[in-house]
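Lecture 7, part 2: worked example. A protein chain together with guanosine-5'-diphosphate.
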Amino acid sequence: MYENKNIRNFCIIAHIDHGKSTLADRILELTNSVDKREMSEQILDNMELEKEKGITIKSRAVTIKYKSLDGIEYTFNLIDTPGHVDFNYEVSRTLAACEGALLVVDATQGVEAQTLANTYLAIDMNLEIIPVINKIDLQSANPEKVINEIEEIIGISAEHCPRISAKTGLNVDQVLEHIVKDIPHPKSNCSELRALVFDSFYDSYKGVVIYLKIVDGSLKTNDRIKFMSNGAEFNVTECGHLLPTKMQPLEQLNFGEVGYLIAGIKDIHEAKVGDTITLSENPTKNALPGYKAVNPMVFCGIYPIENSKYSILKDALEKLKLNDASLVFEPETSSALGFGFRCGFLGLLHAEIIQERLQREFNLDLMITAPSVIYKIQKINGEMCSVDNPSNYLNESQIQFTMEPVTDAHIYVPSEYIGTVMEFCQEKRGEFINIRYINSDRADINYKLPLNEIIYDFFDTLKSKTKGYASFDYSIIGYKKSDLVKLSILVSGELIDAFSMIIHKSKAYYKGKKITEKLKEQIPRQQFEVTIQACIGNKVIARETIKSFRKDVTSKLYGGDITRKKKLLEKQKEGKKRMKKFGRIEIPKSVFLSTLKL
Ligand code: GDP
Ligand code: MG
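Predicted complex, written out as structure tokens:
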């Protein structure tokens, strides 16, 4: 058995806004890890988007030194993780590189949906959990009540946990001592190198930079390494620690350490997150367990507004994928939107973040089609198939029945909102399961909810209906039979594929009406009459018309012959008929943009 007694690898987990990033800032300050001059708020959230939204999207790893009260200097590897459900995948990856977790709970809020979700992930991975009660500087803080909740709901002892203010720094020193005392140091049973790749990104000068945890053995500059999944070999040109504001090259990384590696890897596909790295000369036989492959749950089409930007979009998606293994995409074409990609995401926030990153980091203007989940169709001929893309939906005559994914959803709210939340879930085709009281004034409402109801604007609406008090978490539990249809939109009789969607029958009419009304408002008038129809199969369920311009063809006639006037009008009518038949209308891109936003 090898031991590395002076290292502590830990992460911070919490519900969103409970103070993870602020605590990370204080820990960096207390350990003098960052120059005063370089210190900024939420220093680990270095993506512009993270600062703006105030949320952590990417996990960040940093190495810091801490001299404890026992006089020994320890190396801490701190990993900040995202709190939102869509990024659970990111969380579970970073947990695999840690031996312990600080569980931050806001003393004014208590245990929330994501507190639990993340804690269960950490417990599953055998991490030592240190509860930390935060925001005790606030008047409304009730640490005793929150400690009770942690003990009751999570079932871990919290009696002696630190009660801190990450904002003022009060008692944060206690947290550091708890890390030293309570979190186990790394141990290893073998001497061959095994390193877990837990993240990577592309640097235009250095190529692929890999973040790794050395689980066994050690790694030196100039070592020849091998990726276990594909056998690809490279020479290490640089390895070292990730300091808060820079990468610090080192001769060697030993087991238990977290750091980075550069090996002249140019192809971003070679460095798969979750892979095991070993040495070419003295390889290990057994790869590390790696990560569960994640399955995207929400799909949509992404198209560049300027068709010429297609290859830039392709390149951008590939680069983002390196940084975010959960993103999947494949090329698709739309008759209305041109060349683009069908992309899969873990959830809607994930989709939104990727879209914004594409726009900001790669300067791309994009069109996004309506999000969809994966539906199942039982065909008349006995076969079963899956579709996420409305373009691949089957003809009604081939369908015996359809199924949609359902989730087990938990909503945490103050008791006074129970009625509102239940009504809302009912509206979203939810099936009530249970209510559990967390304490005298807060409840956990459990519903079975269709995933496709959650992916639109469920959480936003839930928040506004509960004045921001609700927290929400869900997991997919399977499929159920459901009456689904494909809603198609026709303009002048022509199918506009970008607007097609798979939807529950009960919602199709409302949605069809909304889209046709919006299109009527948006499409410019033409020389001829334009019809806009929403259809299920051949059946029209909503219809609007845009009247044509009426050019006054008779204006040049002065008085006189009425038959001549009639003739001219007849001729105009004929012409319009012809135009209507053949007249294709170009729908401006702006119309797609605003209608797809619905
Ligand atoms: P995260 O989403 O868990 O990373 O949370 P943040 O660290 O971004 O904090 C969320 C908000 O709570 C920010 O506005 C912080 O300034 C605030 N905050 C964090 N810790 C404290 C604290 O101890 N006291 C007070 N009053 N506010 C805090
Ligand atoms: Mg944060």
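Residues 14, 16-22, 42, 54-56, 83, 134-135, 137-138, 165-167 surround guanosine-5'-diphosphate (ligand 1) (CB under 6 Å). The chain has 14 helices and 32 strands. Keep this in mind for problem set question 3.
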